[in-house]
Write a structure and sequence with these properties.
This protein has 160 residues and is of the alpha+beta class. 21% of the residues lie in helices and 26% in strands. The N and C termini lie far apart (56 Å).
Length: 160
């Protein structure tokens, strides 16, 4: 038996057991795309939807916009109201300064997530239009891949 395991390990490359991790996430709102990159090369791309008011940068709580700029994916939340969620570090210091200048609350709790729990069966419809309060929504099967390939601390850029 040990001989079979040894031969198997010689035949199958070790990297076949590894999941290639992304070192950067790029979201392009105008393309409705989320890209996972490693060393500047695209590993995967997914259809994404955004806040119900997708044009422009988020400036205040309740504006239903998805932020734009550079952030970090800083926390994974498996027990979310949505299928898996990875928190985006919005608001950053620039966002907080802007909100103070405007005299508003910048909002927060912006995530990449799957469908609302229990409603995955509606994804054929929900992924056709922007429906979140400012988050980035994916199909659950796509969220599974992002969850596996993205570690906490991975930088993200969200472009218009």
């Amino acid at each position: 038996m040990r001989l079979l395991i040894f031969i198997f390990l010689l035949i199958v490359p070790i990297n076949a057991f590894c999941i290639e991790k992304a070192d950067f996430v790029l979201v392009v709102k105008s393309e409705s795309k989320l890209y996972l990159l490693k060393n500047g090369e695209i590993l995967s791309e997914f259809h994404a939807v955004f806040g119900t008011s997708p044009r422009g940068h988020k400036s205040r709580q309740g504006d239903e916009k998805t932020p734009e700029g550079f952030y970090v994916l800083d926390y994974k939340k498996e027990d979310s109201a949505f299928y898996k969620a990875i928190r985006i570090s919005y608001p950053n210091e620039k966002d907080k300064r802007r909100a103070r200048h405007l005299g508003v609350n910048p909002g927060g709790n912006i995530m990449i997530h799957g469908q609302r729990n229990g409603f995955d069966w509606l994804s054929w419809l929900t992924q056709k239009s922007n429906w979140t309060d400012g988050c980035i929504a994916l199909l659950n099967r796509d969220m599974d891949i992002v969850w596996q390939r993205v570690d906490e601390g991975t930088p993200i850029e969200i472009r218009p």
